[in-house]
Structures are given as structure tokens and as C-alpha cells.
Amino acid sequence: MTRQANKAPLLLLALGALAVLATLLVLSLANRATRQSAVPAQASERLVRADSPALGPDDAKVTVVEFFDPECESCRAIEPDLIRLLDQYEGQVRLVARYFPLHANSLLAAGTIEAAAQQGGELRWRMRDYLFEKQPEWGEQQTPQKAKFLGYAQDMGLDLAQVEETIESASVRDLVERDRQDGLALGVSGTPTFFVNGERLTPLSVSALERAIQDALNR
């Protein structure tokens, strides 16, 4: 009995030490995960280019970078909440849009957005919203939907000759490919992918995005 009683405190000490080590291990892994979610310094210039389109003030405290595909259903689904958050935190948050094409008509859709932007900066965002609205008509098609895109440009009163000149131009292809390569370098593999002040948002959800924005504002 005495021998077993003497062992009890040692056993409790051992269990306590193991609990402390387990806690330290969990904290270490959590810190490592946080560090891994941040964009490495050498890749930070790929996150926002000098000519990357932005919605919101340049001096906003929080920058949300979205790698998106106009043909992506998830991008379309989150768009209303994204705009709601921009309105909710007006003046404090800016959205930077980067292309990451994954579908058959992604490039033509991007060309349509760029063609609209050339005829007025605000038209970029109107066309983006319009393509999301019309996505069920043209998305998930394996044949080029250029005629539909030209029709959407006509709906918005754009100069169709200029749209025709831009929609499949080398400059658009180069822009979209640069965005895609930047995304790949940053570990993007699907859309939408968000970065909030340089930290990748994982897992993706509206509540997680709002929480990340609020956390960045509170820092």
C-alpha cells in the first residue's frame, strides 16, 4: 500500500508534464498555421499589382484581394455578401480584383469586363455584376459564348466596336495570364480565394471573411 501511494504523486507529475507539453505543441502548431496563412515577403508584390483594379479608397485600413473567375458559381454566390461588407465598412475596406480563370468562357468573360472598364471605370464593376447575374445563361458551356457577351455589352450601352476589339485581345490574355500566374505563386488553386491584409482566408465563408475584416480593423 505504501509503495503504491508513493507512486501516485509521481504519476500525477508525469501526467501534468505531458499535459503541458501537449498544450505547447498545440500552440506551436497554431502559430505555425498562422504564419503559413500569411503571404511570404518575397511573394507580396504578386498580391496587388500597380494596375490591379480596386473598389474603395487607396488608404483603406483593410485590403481584401479576391482571386475570382466570372464563370465560378461560388464567386457569384458570395458577391452580394461581399458588396454588403464593402458597404458596411465603407471607407475602411477596399476590394482588389484578380482573375483566376478555370472554365471554358472565363477568358471571354474577363475580356468583356476589361472592355467595359475601358469605357468607364465604374463600368468594370457594373459589368462584373451583370455577368454574375446572367451567369446561368452562359456559364458551364463548352462552346465560346462571345455572342452573348456582346449582347450584354449592348444591354449596357457600350461601344460594340471597341468591345469587339478588346474582348479577345492579346492585352487581355496577357493580363489574365499574369493574374493567374500570380495566383499560382501565392498558392491559389480555386475560386474565390481571399486575402485580407496579406493573410489568406481559410476556411472560406462569409462569416470568416467578416471576422477577418473586423480583426484587421481592430489591430
UniProtKB/TrEMBL annotation:
One Pfam entry name: Thioredoxin_4
Q: Name one GO molecular function term.
A: isomerase activity
**UniProt key word Transport:** no
The similarity comment for this entry is: Belongs to the thioredoxin family. DsbA subfamily.
Q: What is this protein called?
A: Protein-disulfide isomerase
InterPro entries attached to this UniProt entry: Thioredoxin-like_fold, Thioredoxin-like_sf, Thioredoxin_domain
Q: Which domain of life is it from?
A: Bacteria
**What organism is the protein native to?**
Deinococcus budaensis
